[in-house]
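Cross-check.
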Amino acid sequence: MADLVSVVSAAIVSGDLIIGLSDGGIINAGRVQGPQGLEGPIGPIGANGFAGHDGNTIRTSQGRPAADLGNEGDFAINTVDIEIFGPKMNNGWGNGTSLRGRVSEAEKEYKRGDERELFGMAPVNPDPMSAIGVTAPIINTGTETTPIIGIATELPGTVLAGVATTGDYNDLTNKPAPFDPNTLATVATTGEYSDLLSKPTLGTAAATDATAYATAAQGTTADSAVQPGDLSTVATSGNYADLSNKPDLSLKADLVNGKLDPLQVPDLAISEYLGEVASEAAMLALTGEEGDWAVRTDNGQVYIITGDDPSDAADWIALSYPASPVSSVAGRTGDVVLSNVDISGLGTAATTAATAYATAAQGALAASSVQSVSVTSPIVNTGTATDLTLELATIEGGTY
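Predicted model, tokenized:
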């Protein structure tokens, strides 16, 4: 049985799992993430879980981690001195734990060769348990309730599955069952509607051509159309007898040869002038009918018959006219002929003939002519040069 060595610490550095052993050894278990597996079927959506607390993580630092790096419960790896700190408490990171174990003779020999950094490099002739870079399987030699985690000191070939070295699909276990076309429903291969299950029950309209029905626009028009029940009887019968509120035609006039029957036409009332009378008694002695009229010379008014009895003064009425605002002219009444003496304020020009005056054109010429009173020089009357106000100057060689 292989000697057991327990794991005392583990950390991920640059994507590799670094495991610290109880005997001081360190193992680089390689990349944590394995190759991409086959995509499985999408499972049902589960119910939303309760909100969890923020998780912790492993951080890295160049030297001792700063006090403000990370949160409580986090780990930190000093990648310079290869030591791990944590979990972080409320008072800080505390002291770190070295991830370096004992150094094998091979490592020492290697280090003496070129003094290179040894972390992550495979040593010459390494010790299986202490050489950095050696990947070994982790085993549990205890129980599920009381596990004892250790690392095998040997790397048996049975650790890897057969497919790891063959790459053959047939070497996989738990392979998905191959697709069986016989498990498909009939409609999957026929595409026939009749092969569908749980089909809806269609009405007779489903088998009728769309042209057998009115369009949506026609249906809207029909909704607002007048229905026969909304019409009166005469709208569909066209019978005069079905009309309501018909006029009484018994009182209408009949036509005789396309003309009104004279017997059905009432007498026309025609006003007639009955002449002039000199008194009321003479007016009441006139023979006439409603609308006839006469002139009374005794008072200058016109009278018209308004009743049935022209001999009754109450059946006559005098027509009234607007009163004239002029009662007399120059103190005269009746037919007035005025003369210039009847109009006060007139001058003598009013009684003088127009021929006694110059015309307007003559007056305009007179207004622009030269008047003698405006010329003071005697030359106007004498025409003598000596009467000029400016004497001629003496001209050299003689005088004028």
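The radius of gyration is 73 Å. The chain has a mean pLDDT of 74. Passed to J.P. for a second look.
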